[in-house]
Amino acid sequence: MLKSTEKIFASGFESHVIRDIDLATLFDGTDASRYGLVNKAIKANELVPLRRGLYLARSAHRPVQFSQYYLANHMVPCSFVTAESALSYHGWIPERVTDVVSLSVFGRQKEFSNEFGHFSYFIFKGVSHQFLQGVERVEAVPRFFWMAKPLRALLDYLMLNKVEGATIDFLEKSLRIEKEMLLSVAVSELDAMQDIYTSLRIKRFLKHFKREIQHAAKPH
User: Fold this and answer.
1) How many domains does the chain have?
2) Are 203 and 165 in contact (CB under 8 A)?
């Protein structure tokens, strides 16, 4: 093993996502010299690049394994997994989604590919202080991650794909979400989502979806 990698692991970073700022605490010199050390470690198959400035110890040297979702949260700060990725995680859509879609509160749209998968980041176009409305902290060994709940994931999917005039029947056919799951959404959940989006398309969907749920709940 390279001496530089030994020093990184001896400092306990083999169990964490390794950042440039972490390397700066361990190695003197310029950014370019530290980047040279990282490149050598990558070529020696001792570090895995996630994106520029973020790395993991190769699994043979890493005592813990991380989920795609945990890595997605850390590759772009202030982000959470949503849309079809979260719908698949919750079992709302039958397809297994390998790409990870996330929303971030600031910055610009980004995409990264590494050996853990393809990661896409979109910017949340809504009320910033409501960014985490409908998002939950999922406890996972060894680290937690942030994931949209089913309704939030569905709304983000409709927003990102600019879906107009969606109905329960449309969602059944296009996304293959079971009707029972859609009708299980509480009206209070819908009400809680009313003010977080600036998109009129989403506001119209929420009103229509609420009417459909209330109509289905009435005795016939």
Assistant:
1) 2
2) no
